[in-house]
């Protein structure tokens, strides 16, 4: 990956991405709001249950056993409730806890992130459920891919990549067999690797040819893939991945959808490990749409990464402090989940 993508967004890019737009009235939440800390505890338990469910249905497909997509409905609704209580906590939990088996966690992460983006876009509860279900099953076709390719700890050969790129078609075929499944969920599995400029796969669709839900899935799928630890790579910091995606927004993604995704997560998503202008290091614990460049940061380390007394600082209220870089916590052995609780 070239150096141009190793930096967080510039202030100019941030201003452009976060410029005012008229279309974003979120529906009122069905549950009472919760603090980050309150929802992290609930989301932690819910996320573990969700990963177990994903493992169950993916393993069933791999073994040729039947599965019923409607079994996921209660779980998806629980995830939607969590998003409405505190979407920052729900988004953060997938990056703050260590779970094995990317194939399973990726199903849950894409479901959650797609719901968060749909909430930002003002989707109804019914439509959010559709989005969450589509995210849950978008990669079901990977259960058909041979494990030695799916879990290979290194770059795939051209031939192996051709096999990997069949998973949307496998997903389409598997979901087509489900009674009463909405077409939007099937198309989400088939089209989430299509790109706005027509350079995606499997059919090279472009622009309006790609279904609305698949456009959402395309964004969150890339984000989760790049911010997740894989057998062949370390995770990239969320803030830097958003910068990468902002640079790709014209070719890869539907107009304005990356900007809305950035607005939904924040320029520095909760859980981001950052360096401040003082040289100190800390973790983002909250953010405000009104102050996208100035989240709340829990300062935990000095400029030499030595632990110091933790203190929370709202950068919006301290003009002398600003974020200068986004750091990969794994490189310093930092457990973000412990810091943020």
TrEMBL record:
Please name the InterPro entries in this protein's record: HD/PDEase_dom (IPR003607), HD_GYP_dom (IPR037522), HDIG_dom (IPR006675)
Which ranges carry the HD-GYP domain? 81-277
So which domain of life are we looking at?
Answer: Bacteria
What Gene3D superfamilies does its record include?
Hypothetical protein af1432
The name this protein goes by in its record: HD domain-containing protein
Record-linked PROSITE patterns: HD_GYP
């Amino acid at each position: 990956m070239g150096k141009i993508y190793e930096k967080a967004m510039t202030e100019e890019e941030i201003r452009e991405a976060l410029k005012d737009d008229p279309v974003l009235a979120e529906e009122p939440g069905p549950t009472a709001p919760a603090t980050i800390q309150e929802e992290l505890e609930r989301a932690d338990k819910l996320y573990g249950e969700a990963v177990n469910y994903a493992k169950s249905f993916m393993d069933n497909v791999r073994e040729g056993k039947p599965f019923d997509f409607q079994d996921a409905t209660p779980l998806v609704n629980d995830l939607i409730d969590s998003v409405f209580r505190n979407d920052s906590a729900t988004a953060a939990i997938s990056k703050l806890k260590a779970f094995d088996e990317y194939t399973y966690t990726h199903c849950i992460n894409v479901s959650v992130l797609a719901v968060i983006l749909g909430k930002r876009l003002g989707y109804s509860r019914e439509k959010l459920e559709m989005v969450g279900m589509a995210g849950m099953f978008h990669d079901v076709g990977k259960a058909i891919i041979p494990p030695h390719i799916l879990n290979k700890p290194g770059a795939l050969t051209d031939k192996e990549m051709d096999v990997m790129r069949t998973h949307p078609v496998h997903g389409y075929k598997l979901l087509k067999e489900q009674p009463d499944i909405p077409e939007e969920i099937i198309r989400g599995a088939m089209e989430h690797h299509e790109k706005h400029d027509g350079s995606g796969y499997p059919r090279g669709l472009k622009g309006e040819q790609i279904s609305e839900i698949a456009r959402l899935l395309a964004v969150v799928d890339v984000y989760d893939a790049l911010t997740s630890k894989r057998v062949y790579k370390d995770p990239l910091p969320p803030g830097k991945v958003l910068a990468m995606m902002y640079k790709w927004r014209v070719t890869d993604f539907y107009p304005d959808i990356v900007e809305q995704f950035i607005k939904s997560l924040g320029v520095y998503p909760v859980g981001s490990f950052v360096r401040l202008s003082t040289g100190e290091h800390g973790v983002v614990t909250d953010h405000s749409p009104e102050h996208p460049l100035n989240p709340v940061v829990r300062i935990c380390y000095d400029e030499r990464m030595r632990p110091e007394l933790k203190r929370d600082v709202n950068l919006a209220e301290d003009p002398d402090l600003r974020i200068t870089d986004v750091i990969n916590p794994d490189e310093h052995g930092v457990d973000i989940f412990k810091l943020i609780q």
